[in-house]
Amino acid sequence: MTEPxxxxxxxxxxxxxxxxxxxxxxxxxxxxxxxxxGLLAIGFALLSLALLLxxxxxxxxxxxxxxxxxxxxxxxxxLLGIERATAPEAFAFADCEALLRASLxxxxxxxxxxxxxxxxxxxxxxxAGFELCATLAAQPALLGSRGARSxxxxxxxxxxxxxxxxxxxxxxxxxxxxxxxxxxxALAAAGRIERRFAMRFFTGGDSREPELAGVLGALVxxxxxxxxxxxxxxxxxxxxxxxxxEFAPKGRLIDLVEVNINNLAAVPSIVFxxxxxxxxxxxxxxxxxxxxxxxxxxALMTLPTVIIASRSALLAVPPSIRExxxxxxxxxxxxxxxxxxxxxxxxxLTGAIIGMARALGxxxxxxxIGMVAFIVDIxxxxxxxxxxxxxxxxxxxxxxxxxxxxxxxxxxxxxxxFLVAMNLTAVLLRSRFERRY
Amino acid sequence: MNSAATKISTRGLNVFYGDKQALxxxxxxxxxxxxxxxxxxxxxxxxxFIRCINRMxxxxxxxxxxxxVILDEEDIxxxxxxxxQLRARVGMVFQKPNPFPKSVYDNVAYGARIHGLAxxxxxxxxxxxxxxxxxxxxxxxxxxxxDPGTGLSGGQQQRLCIARAIAVxxxxxxxxxxxxxxxxxxxxxxxELIGELSExxxxxxxxxxxxxxxxxxxxAAFFHLGAVVEEGETSRIFTDPSDERxxxxxxxRFG
Lengths: 437, 255
Hints:
Chain A is 62% helix and 5% strand. By secondary structure, chain A is mainly alpha-helical. Chain A folds into two domains: 71-196, no CATH class; 216-433, Orthogonal Bundle (MetI-like fold). In chain B, strand 4 and strand 5 (74-75) form a beta hairpin. Chain B is globular. Chains A and B meet through helix 13 and helix 14 of A and helix 2, strand 6, helix 3 and helix 6 of B.
């Protein structure tokens, strides 16, 4: 009888042999390596995200703060160039700048010559006079009275107080002269400079002056555009998905439609913009730069997303539910309306919201149909010229004034906030209404 | 064969799934107010046959039906037959309990609602209560009518599905292995129920359990490879089958 060999190829024991230990160690090492690759990848992704957000927040936060100067004003009708008790329309022609000039002049009497005066008045925002006139028009009783008012500083003066102007640079390389810096220091020393929350950023339309530029116009434009997109793409997309998934006979034609829808989802958005330009503007003659056309173009872009998401949501409804409804004598339409669609709705809504979020962030197609224009007024409806939030970011990023840099980042922050809110809604909807069968 | 006793009869029924033929020339008579059990090995065409009776095969892609299925002297595969009306008369209970993800009440009320069987909420309540009572479920769910039907136990869900089928007042109830996903106690409860229901309904049941077929049915048909091999009184089929294959199947030699 031969003894069984101790080091058999496959030992009949679970105890770890030497060779077994080695191969096991290799396997564990491979697994550890693989895990660390994954961790590394996630770490890199998180770091990039943190870097992006950190940089945008760091750059954007200053835009939410604005410095104002408090000036003693005498609402002198003579200086304003209007008589007491005139019609309110007359305030439109009032020389409010003269009031500001007089007030500043009395604070700094030494600035006499032409050039010094121009430099002095440049410290105030170009919009300060308009704001004052608007106040006057709203409260005509102020005429003839004296009082202190807070008025916006120019963006350069504002940036000085935010510490973004390097006073050590030679005077010729700065936007503010030594004299201007001295005046600003004097105003600060006199307690005239106030740090305020930049409400104008949220209540104003676009402007050439950074300190007056706001996102409201773009925000309202985006709202009208998205409304049109939603109203078009949601019903059409859901109806198309329901037909394709529940009613369409399987065949070559439907396969072709399916392939095309999937392809459309991958078409670059600017192509949709070109289509909109060619079809909606040139062929149908719709107006340029309006949210209606922007919404139509974005609806075309969003449709494939909505259709694909809706189809997969419909597909996820178990066939047993359809059979059950058919079994008690429901017609195919009743099966869809009473059972399949309600069960698929959370998934459909999630898809639609994600599609809308994509549409909200889309710039390229809007450029093609002229929603990139400089529009100061807040659009009152989908047929008035408007811009959109991402387009506003694009426009500001393109502007030469340094103060627009912060505005750009702040607008991006706002855009990201909306996107996160929309995606969060989608996630909540899904977890809230998801049903188990 | 007394025609008054026959509820459903098929003549030359052939069914194809694409190129594959699933049923070959099936001629079968199903008697009124009796339980007919369809037995046979898996894939022999029992389910296909049962789904022909309320045209549930219509929704299957590539399924074609040739031949006649006569329900009370009407061929249900005629062009002018309304499938919705047909399914109201021929109810179905599926293999896996499939209540709607709605309340117990709405599950039962759904069929009555879409067929307009109740004019007032009171009548609807009446229909729901009677159906639950007949399905032997009322005592267990009386306080839980607004709870989701999917929250009931498996056996209760299947009885809920039976109540849902009854609520439409069908004449025929088709059951496709109704106990296959239930434990023996729940199965026994369903079997008992089938016995009670057969007084008012014509029942066709597909089952893989020989004992179940023997317990619940008056008549039985043995399917093999898409054809009916033997059909007759359940007691005779189980004690004295005339065909070799039936005997082999019943005694467990194949299948």
